[in-house]
Amino acid sequence: MTAVLEQTAGVAASSRRGAILSVRDLKTYFATPAGEVKAVDGLSFDLRAGQVLGLVGESGSGKSVTGFSIVRLIEPPGRIVGGEISFKGQELTGASLEEMRRLRGRHIAMIFQDPMMTLNPVLRIDTQMIEAIQAHERVPIAEARARARDALGKVGIPSPEERLKAYPHQFSGGMRQRVAIATALLNQPDLIIADEPTTALDVTIQAQILAEVQKLTRDTNTAVIWISHDLSVVSGMADEVAVMYAGRIVEAGPVAEVINAPRHPYTAGLIGSLPSRNRRGERLRQIHGMTPNLLDLPEGCAFRTRCDHADEACRREPGLFARHGHVHRCFHPCREDA
């Protein structure tokens, strides 16, 4: 497979060739009084320019922590304890704060789930967007303002010229999120990490945003990591998908193949719980149980306590199984004809 490569002994250096982002064996832990929480535990993948990677899973699976780790925004008690993050050949885990500041916004943009993590409540929208441009480019204010206005229009904000003069509190939650998305697109970054950015938007605007992101990847060859719990959104825009559970990727591959022929029971459970996969009048299927406590994970496969197919073999840590670029971690994979 091209975008997602789990760490194995046989991974060659050539697998990174052409990758704009290469993550190897990333481990991000949080120290707590009760013990160490392994939020991300041995994550590896490659992403090429122009590709969209969907990162999916239930809340607490480590998706957002992965995104924050890449842009080095993990705060204490969290810390990256191991692994490598290489962006366009530059190692980020050891990069200085000044080096990361130069990269963020210009080359790597992150769209947060909460727009108020992006917007300053006491500054006008035009001030914030113009500053986001001029922090990385020496352009006249008039030109920066025009780019800001056009960006607001692209994300569906009416009367963008007038809206530039408004403050964040004068927008609804959904409108603030659109402003945050527009700000991330301003400098046409090489990589966008989108952390569930359309959750608060209605379906019409959501479709508009997704179309704009897809157009951006086509026109500017921007790579995108789209973090979401919504498989229907990911299936419509991503090239490849990686399914996370308890801090690890349990299945990954081309999005059509993973959606139509899931190999890991957890992936199959996520897909089976979608309303579109159930017949009218039938109860929605669900994965029984709760996500495990990361302080007390089951031995072996972390999913075994919720899996209908678990047996004694699952008390061992499953290795990586690969077939035609479709990888999974399970001793009892779903049949392809299921």
UniProtKB/TrEMBL annotation:
Compartment(s): Cell inner membrane
SMART domains: AAA
Sequence similarity: Belongs to the ABC transporter superfamily.
Membrane topology: Peripheral membrane protein
This protein's record includes keyword Transport: yes
Major localisation: membrane
InterPro entries membership: AAA+_ATPase, ABC_Ni/Peptide_Import, ABC_transporter-like_ATP-bd, ABC_transporter-like_CS, Oligopep_ABC_C, P-loop_NTPase
GO biological process: peptide transport; transmembrane transport
GO molecular function, one term: ATP hydrolysis activity
Organism: Consotaella salsifontis
Record's signal peptide: none
Pfam families: ABC_tran, oligo_HPY
Protein's recorded name: Peptide/nickel transport system ATP-binding protein
UniProt entry keywords in alphabetical sequence: ATP-binding, Cell membrane, Membrane, Nucleotide-binding, Transport
Statement: the UniProt record of this protein carries the keyword Phosphoprotein: no
